[in-house]
Structures are given as C-alpha cells and as structure tokens.
Structure to design on (384 residues):
C-alpha cells in the first residue's frame, strides 16, 4: 500500500474533469470549423478522423511513458499541451492547418486519457475499494461543463477565438490544481516493463469488451437522432435521445462506486450488459419515439459502469503490467469509436438502421455473457 489518500483521489477526479471539458468543448465548434474552412460534409468527416488518428497513435506509448516517468509529468504535459492546441481549433483558417490541429489535439487528449486511467487504476488499487466509476463520472460531468460553457458563450455572441481561450485557461487551471498530488512514480513492476508488449491473455478480452461498449456509445451519439426522427419525432427534438442517454450514464457513474462495491464486477457486467441490450431492443421495436427515448435511458444506465469495471480489471490482471494493459485496452476500445460511425452506416445502408441497432444489442449481450467466464474481465471491480 502506498497510502495515496484523499488528495490523490481528488487530483484524479480533477484530471478526469479536465479531460471531459476539453473533449466536449470541441463539439460546438465543428459547424464553425466547417464554415471557416469551406469543406463539404465528406471532407469534414476526414478532418474529424485526424483527431481519432492522433489519439490512436498516442495511446499505445502512453502506458510506457507513465511507467518510465510517472503519471504526473505525462498528465501535466499532455493536459497543458491540449490546452495550448485547443484555441487553434477555433482559428485554423484552412483544412490542412485544421487537420494538423486536430491531430495534435487528439494526440495530447489520448495521452491524457490513458495516463489518467493509469493513475486511476493505481489509486483505486491502493484504496482497496471501488473508485473507478466516480472517476469516469467526473469525465461525464466535465463533458456537460465543457460543451455547455462553450455553447453558452457562443450563444452570448462571445467570439469563437475568445471562447476557446477561456475554455483552454479553465482546463489548464483544473490540471494545475490537480498537479501537486498526481503520482510521481509508477510501481516498480511497471518501471521494469519491456519497451514493447503485445496485448495478450485477459487484456485482449478486456479490450474487445471495451470496444463493444465504446461502439455502442458512439452509435448512440451518431445515430440516436436519426432513429428518433425516423420514428416520428421532429428534427428539433432528435437530440433528446443522446441527452437522455448522457444524463443516465452520468448519474449511473456518479453513483457507481457504491453499486460496484456492493455487487462486484461480475454482476455489473451481467446486469449492465443485459440492461443495455434490452435498451437497444426497445429502441428498435418501440412503436413510438417517446418509448424509444426510454430505451436510450436504459442503455445509459446499463452501460454506465461497464467500462470503469473493465479498467479496474485491467489493473488487476497478471498478464501485463497495469500501465501497459490500460494503454492496450484504451487503444483497442478506441478503435470501436473510430470504426463505429462507418460500420453502423454500412450496416444501415445494407439492411437498415434498426438491424444495426439490433446487432449492437447482441454485442452488449456478449458483454453480459463474459460475466459467466473465469476471465478477470468478468470479475473486475473492487470489492470490500
């Protein structure tokens, strides 16, 4: 035991809050970026892919950096680097410069994402109880704060450049507040890890399960409005689907530590996976848009604590050092976010969006089924 204590737990929550603020604040800027650069929808999609590519390339090496140098320098450099890049997303005058800015933003954000999860795993393991859901809940809160603050400033006619600087300063201040109590050293086992470790054993299974959940979350983000409008809801109300999902997920995570502590990781995977699968089926089969909205709430509730449990499982497995395992499952899982929109679109074009959502229900059933295995992924989650 390292006796990290309350200060380290608070610093971890602040890091998750900062990351959520930075990521979500970019979303309201997308239409302005498209108008400024003059790109069409297809070109915009390629530009947005640069953010994901930057994250995907940075994630595999972050666990190694955290193991060699400790979480503190990696988190501070990536977090403050993210703040430095963010205003350029609002002022980049051309598509190539915006692509470069998005790539750098994605790389810094991906590095922060993995390193803060490495710290979260270490702090939770030292604490001896469930903390991961609360950490991820702060990321969701940060998402609400970041997107809401940016939207409010733009609504009040604050210039895009000024609003982006305000967000960057706010995120930087949160990171600096967290800084003094971030973990300076990784465990000896992680510091002695080899330079390159191919994911193996339970880590691969955990990563695949994360990919299913991230794919489901991305599908709700990208396609929930389409599902609701196809079911008779007006275009102006289409955003209610993701809003309901996001609120349910945030509330589930903020209360998740107590639930995980009481039920354990296996039950979270089983019941959460089943609830999310039923939610997707309700969305597919609902005779009205308002009943489908209830399905999105159920998806959010069910999925809310699955990823935190899986990250805890990554820290508890013995096939790889914890830091490298977190990097691996983050990379595999993030692949689901990148591939999700195109994959869902392809299936929807071929057989219909409802069948695509039915396939997502099957994916969540596989997550629930993993609870019946003996793999650490099924037993993730700290217990009393």
């Amino acid at each position: 035991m390292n006796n990290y204590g309350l200060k380290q737990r608070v610093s971890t929550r602040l890091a998750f809050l900062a990351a959520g603020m930075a990521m979500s604040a970019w979303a309201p800027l997308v239409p302005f970026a498209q108008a400024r650069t003059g790109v069409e929808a297809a070109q915009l999609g390629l530009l947005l892919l640069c953010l994901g590519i930057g994250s995907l390339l940075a994630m595999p090496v972050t666990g190694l950096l955290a193991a060699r140098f400790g979480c503190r320098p990696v988190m501070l450099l990536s977090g403050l680097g993210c703040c430095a890049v963010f205003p350029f997303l609002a002022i980049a005058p051309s598509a190539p410069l915006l692509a470069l800015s998005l790539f750098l933003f994605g790389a810094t954000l991906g590095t922060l994402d993995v390193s803060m999860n490495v710290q979260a795993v270490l702090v939770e393991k030292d604490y001896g109880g469930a903390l991961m859901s609360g950490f991820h809940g702060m990321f969701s809160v940060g998402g609400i704060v970041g997107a809401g603050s940016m939207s409010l400033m733009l609504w009040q006619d604050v210039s895009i450049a000024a609003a982006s600087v305000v967000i960057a300063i706010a995120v930087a201040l949160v990171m600096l507040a967290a800084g003094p109590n971030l973990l300076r050293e990784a465990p000896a086992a992680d510091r002695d890890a080899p330079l390159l470790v191919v994911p193996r054993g339970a880590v691969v299974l955990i990563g695949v399960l994360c990919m299913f959940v991230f794919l489901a979350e991305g599908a709700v983000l990208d396609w929930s409005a389409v599902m609701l409008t196809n079911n008779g809801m007006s275009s102006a109300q289409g955003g209610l689907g993701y809003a309901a999902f996001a609120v349910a997920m945030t509330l589930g995570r903020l209360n998740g530590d107590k639930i995980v502590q009481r039920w354990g990781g296996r039950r979270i995977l089983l019941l959460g996976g089943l609830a999310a699968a039923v939610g997707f089926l309700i969305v597919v089969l609902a005779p009205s848009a308002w009943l489908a909205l209830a399905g999105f709430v159920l998806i959010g509730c069910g999925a809310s604590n699955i990823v935190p449990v899986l990250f805890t499982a990554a820290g508890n497995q013995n096939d790889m050092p914890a830091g490298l395992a977190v990097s691996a499952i983050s990379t595999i899982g993030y692949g689901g976010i990148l591939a999700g929109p195109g994959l869902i679109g392809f299936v929807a074009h071929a057989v219909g969006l409802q069948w695509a959502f039915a396939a997502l229900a099957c994916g969540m059933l596989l997550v629930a089924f993993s609870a019946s295995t003996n793999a650490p992924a099924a037993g993730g989650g700290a217990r009393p």
Summary: The chain has a mean pLDDT of 86. Residues 95-127 form the longest helix (33 residues). The chain has two domains: 5-191, 202-372. The domain at 202-372 is CATH 1.20.1250.20 (Growth Hormone; Chain: A;).
